[in-house]
Each structure stands twice: as C-alpha cells, then as structure tokens.
Amino acid sequence: MHPYRTHTCGELRKNHVDQTVKLSGWVHRKRDHGGVLFIDLRDFYGLAQAVVHPDRAFFDEASRVRPESVITITGQVVARTPETVNSELPTGEIEVTVEEFKVDSAADALPFPVNQELEYPEDTRLTYRFLDLRHERLRDNILLRSRTAQLTREYMTGRGFIEFHTPILTSSSPEGARDYLVPSRLYPGHFYALPQAPQQFKQLLMTSGFDKYFQIAPCFRDEDSRADRSPGEFYQIDIEMSYITQDDLFVEIEGLMVRLFTELSNRKIVAETFPRIPYREAMEKFGTDKPDIRFGLEMADVSDVFRESEFKVFRGAVEKGGAVKVINASGAAEQSRKFFDDAEAFAKSEGAKGLAWIALRDGEMKGPVAKFLSETERQGLISATNAKDGDALFFGAGPRDETNQLLGRVRVYLGNALNLIDENLAAFCWVVDFPMFEWNPDEKKVEFSHNPFSMPQGGLEALETQDPLDVLALQYDVVCNGVELSSGAIRNHRPDIMVKAFEIAGYDRATVENKFPALWKAFHYGAPPHGGIAPGFDRIVMLLAGEPNIREIIAFPLNQRAQDLLMGAPSMVDDRQLLDILGNNKRLVEEFKKALTQKPSVE
RNA sequence: GGGGGCGUAGUUCAGUUUGGUUAGAACGCUGCCCUGUCACGGCAGAGGUCGCCGGUUCGAGUCCGGUCGUCCCCGCCA
Fold first, then answer.
1. Which residues face A490 on adjacent strands?
2. A351 CA, B13 C1': Å apart
3. Bridge partner list, A329
4. CA of residue A138 to C1' of nucleotide B13, angstroms
C-alpha cells in the first residue's frame, strides 16, 4: 500500500464501501464526543469524515491532535446510516472507520482559524500566508488565476501568437516610473534595471519578423501601492502585432476578453464589440478616461444656457472660460433631503465648493438654486438633459477640466447611491484618440501625454502642420467597469517621425538616439508597421474574482509598504555581498553602511 | 511627501459621546465531562501596559498634545 494515500479525501463515494483505504491530509475540524471522535480530513480535493472509536490504542493521541495537523489514516469505508448522511458534503454518504493513525506533522495553536472564512488583519495574514492560502476563498482566487493564465495561453496560441520570454535583467529606462535597480558585480557602479514592461523588446521582436508576440510578462515598477496596484511587481498580458491597424488589434483583444469573462466569470458582457469613446468625449461625458458605462448619468454641457445667467456661480464660470456641466439623475427627485445633502458633502470632500441641484417635482423646479433660474434657462436645461418630472439635476461649474473630473466622481457616487450599478455586468469600452501631446503648466512646455512610441494620427504631416496640442495619437485604452485594464498603441516605427515628435517635446535627435538606442538602430534596418497592447493580468483576475483588493489574487503579495512579511524582504545583506558590488573596497562598504540611514528590515 | 479611517484579550468587536469600583462578549486556547456529530454540546480556567510617550485631573480606555502602526485615497504610475 502507498505510504500516504490510496485515494484523495474528496473522491470517496458509496461505491467505495467495504474497501480499505489510506488517506492523508489536514485535520480540518474535530468533533470529540468522548466516546467517539469525528475528524474531518481535508486535502486539495475535498473533505472526508473519519471516525475514531474509543477502544483503539491511538484514541487519546487522535483526540489531542490540533486542527491543521497533517495525519495519515488507514481504515474501512463505511456507508453512513440514513440519519447520519451529510447532504452538504460530496463524500457525505460514507465515512472512514480509522484502524491506523499517524501524525505526520503536528500543528501549533493557529494565529487564525483555517476552518472558517473570517476577516483577519492583513499583516497577520501575510505573515502566515501559507496558512491563509488554505482558506477556500484565497485558494479559489489562486486557482482562478491559474485558469486565467492557461486560457490566455490557449487563446493566444490558437490565434497564431508566439509566446516569448524577455530579459529580467535589462537597462534602466529613461521615462516612466522609478526602476528597481540591480547592482552589477563585474562593473561596480553600474546597474541593471528590472523591466517596467518589455515594451522595447517586443517591438524589437516585431522588427525581427516574429509577426505576433505575446507574453504573460512580469513588470517591475517602484511606485506606491493602491488597492488595485501592487507595489513592486505585477503581470501584463503583453501583446504586439505587425502589419495591423487599430481595428485588427481591437478584434483580438475583444475576443480574448469575451473568452476569459465568458468562461471564468458569471458577469454578463454588455457588448462583445466594445463601444469606442474618443478621449475628449470621455472627459466631457464621464469626467474620466476610464468611464464606468454600466450606468448612465452622463454629463451634459449647459455652459451656453448660463452665459447670461443671474446666478453668478454659473455665469462666472462661463465668463472665465470654464464650463457648467449637469447630470440628470433620472427619478431621483423623490429622494430625501439627506440624500441631496450627502451628495453635496461628498462633492465637497472631493474638493468642490458646493453641489447645486434641482429636483423636478409637481411640474416645478425645486432646490436651493432654482429661484435664480430664468424661464429661458429652465427650457434650456430641459432640452439639454431631457429632464422630466421626477428627475433631479446636479451641477458642476468652474474650470472645464476640473469641473469634468469633479462631476465625474459625483456621477460614480450617484450611481452607487442610487443603486444603478449592476455588479453582474462586465461593461467594456475602448477609449480612443488620446492626444499625442499635452501642456505642462508647471514647466510651461509641451510633453508627451502617454508614451513617446505612439504613431501620431496623420503621421509626419500632422506633426509638421498642426498645433501639437491638436494632434491625436493612435493610442487607446481598454476599460472595464471603470477599471483601466490596459493601454496600447500603434507604434511609431519611422525614425524621421520619431525625431519630429521628440523635437516637439523639446528633445533633439541625439536624445532619441541615446535614450532609445535599440529601437533607433532597429528601425533603420527594415521595421514593419506594428502595434500592441498590454492588459493588466492581475486586474483582470480581480474583476473575474470580484475581489476589491489586488492582494487577494496574488499568492505572495508584498504589503502596502512593499515588504514581504513572510520572507523578510527587503533586508540588509552580508558585507561580502556589499564588497562584491563596491569593487572589493572595504572602506566604501563601511561608508556605505554608515551613510545610509538604516531603515529597519522586516523582522 | 500630503489627507482620511482605524488601533481595547491570540482574533473579531462592545465600552470612549457624558472621566469614577475588579475593562466585557463571541470565536480560539488549556483542563474536565460527553458513543453519532458534521459550526457537536456542557462545566471550569488562563489570557489585557486599552499602540506608545507626555499633559490636564483627586482619578484617564474615555479629555488634550505628540508619536508609531495599519488600511484607503492624493501625489507618483513612459
């Protein structure tokens, strides 16, 4: 007989009755009746009830074994009597009468129970992550992550994409987030950087002729964390294709997303061909470049209506070149006064000076600002918003971009407050036509608004003839439920257009050559037109799992302050290791250690 | 770097508004009882620097100042 198991805990059924079986697993739960002892034995595959009778020599040992200890039992599969069948359990029709009992690994008292799904402090969970991962919810998330990766590979290879590995030790990139640096032993004072994304490598592979690239690529960025952004490292489904238009790429991504969400979640996909929203329109209607289109409440521009208004807040905003925007919260007129006060309190907490509102009740406009409105303005409002009796209007007024963003957050607040957001939906959209450049008011200069590798719409001619701030890029984002999953672009593969684009952003030709030597060189030896995208793998799994925090779908995440509480990273290193990277100079090692304020490593 | 929430037993939390005897409950832990449970049940017990430092007060978990930790957000994220 096998030393550990003849069956798994989840597979025993009625047809195994009378067989002698061996099971190994964790003690999930014990029910000690003094005269008879029940042990729920758990492994990866399920749960089985083991019964220990008091005449057995190991009865005392078994009754003392603590939850989560690993044991091996041998015994006979017995059919349960009808009264004792547990219909909740797949193995509930049988139990195993224990004849041999062995503790393989005794467990100490636990920092938190594994047999119940309760909330525990995250630092405790991360310190004992190996235990936390035994919880069903976390385990299911990790399995979902595995299936997501597997299905992605299946889909992508089925579509003719080639999977690559690109370097982890590479060079520091000139733009973007902070790099993680790795000191070089052979070249003291020199550093590798961990890649923020394999951006340049995948473009080089296109230039090498591989046509369709993909990689579930590790990316490293030294940024502060968020609920949906783990510090340090994350994964992207990195994709690049040659000889394509934007439309060709959208088809591939729509197919991948529909496949993943159809097979791995219960969310209903609102539209399998994702609607496309130009960036400018997204900002005007939703106040963000990642609109949540599971619900309406789109913003309308009523600046023209209030150009001559007696209501100074609105007229003033328009006179100063700003905007007056309005949201029609259909049916909200009957909400309590508290509802409107809470909405205003929210707007103020986001930085607004106030939140004007009007409720249409009994054929009249009611609310604090209604009395300022002329008949013409009332008509203008109604035609701009299609408002009818029972609706409520919420206003934002001020500088245009600021007002859009603020009222955009009010929109999401109202969507939640009015229960308009259906959690069972997956509402994808493309945001397209991002501007190529933007004005940096602090440094008073034009700069790239996304990444410098995008192809400007209209090519070289657009750069030469248009106002740079009017030039659009072949740059796009894919958004789901208000979460930005990915940015991508049709790339700029033409050295002459690169030079012109960088020139507009204030860099000379030498800068391009020095900053991006690989691409610069490669694009002089026959580069195919190409483009791609890189959806965030972790965020997709988050959406599939319905988890609000990215750490719940990562087996061993860093905590918010970028520490690994289990492994103790980051940590100080031996003098020997410091000597290696400081050119064997002992004096330098001492100065190095003295100079750095020694932030304590993780205990 | 900045803002907000939270910090009381191993854990989840009550108590803080209005300062006043020995700081409670549940789960977990330890011991005892229990032969059909499946979140088994019953009895008993251990377990607390109320995050830390200082202040006000006859008296501080409770009020004040500072500080630390943690989570969320802003900045940051080509």
1. A531
2. 34
3. A392
4. 24
Compute the mean pLDDT over every residue in chain A, rounded to the nearest whole number: 92
Give A229 CA → B2 C1' in Å.
19
Q: Distances from the Cα of A71 to the Cαs of A29, A55, A74, A391, in angstroms? A: 13, 19, 10, 65
pLDDT of residue A603: 39
- What value of ipTM does the predicted structure carry? 0.89
- Each residue's pLDDT tens digit, A212-259: 999 999 999 999 999 899 888 999 999 999 999 999 999 999 999 999
- Answer whether A273's CB lies under 8 Å from A253's CB: no
- CA→C1' distance for A588 and B21 (Å): 64
Which nucleotide is closest, CA of A561 to its C1'?
A: B70
Measure, in angstroms, how far nucleotide B75 C1' is from residue A182 CA.
Answer: 26
Only one residue has tokens 């690049």, namely: A240
C1' of B3 to CA of A346 (Å): 15
Distance CA A285, CA A408 (A): 8
The predicted model scores a pTM of 0.92
Beta strands in A419-574 (DSSP E): 425-426, 428-432, 437-440, 445-448, 475-480, 483-490, 530-533
| Encoded amino acid at A72, one letter | T
Q: A492 and A455 in contact (C-beta within 8 Å)?
A: yes
A514-530 average pLDDT score: 94
Measured CA A142 to C1' B48 distance, in angstroms: 38
Three-class SS of residue A481? coil
Residue A560, CA: closest nucleotide via C1'?
A: B71
Written as one string, the DSSP assignment of A264-317 is H--PEES-SS--EEEHHHHHHHHSSSS--TTS---EEE-TGGGTT-S-HHHHHH
CA distance A558 to A100: 42
The C-alpha R_g of chain A, in whole angstroms, comes to 31
Confidence of residue A600 (pLDDT cuts 50, 70, 90): very low
Q: Check residue A597 and give its pLDDT.
A: 53
Three-state DSSP state, A439:
strand
> Distance (Å) from CA A603 to C1' B68?
16
CA–CA separation, A403 and A406 (whole Å): 5
Any idea which nucleotide's C1' is nearest the CA of A97? B36
Residue type, position A149, single letter = A
For residue A534, give the nucleotide whose C1' atom is nearest its CA.
B78
More confident residue, A540 or A352: A540
Residue at the smallest CA–C1' distance to nucleotide B77: A177
Q: Which nucleotide is nearest to A34 (CA to C1')?
A: B34
For residue A449, which nucleotide's C1' is closest to its Cα?
B78
Run of H or E residues at A31: strand A20-32
The letter for the amino acid at A526 is G
Alpha-carbon gap, residue A392 to A371, rounded angstroms:
15
Q: Which positions in strand B are less than 7 Å from the protein's CB atoms?
A: 1, 10-13, 27-31, 33-41, 69-78
Positive or negative, the Cα torsion across A227, A231, A233, A238? positive
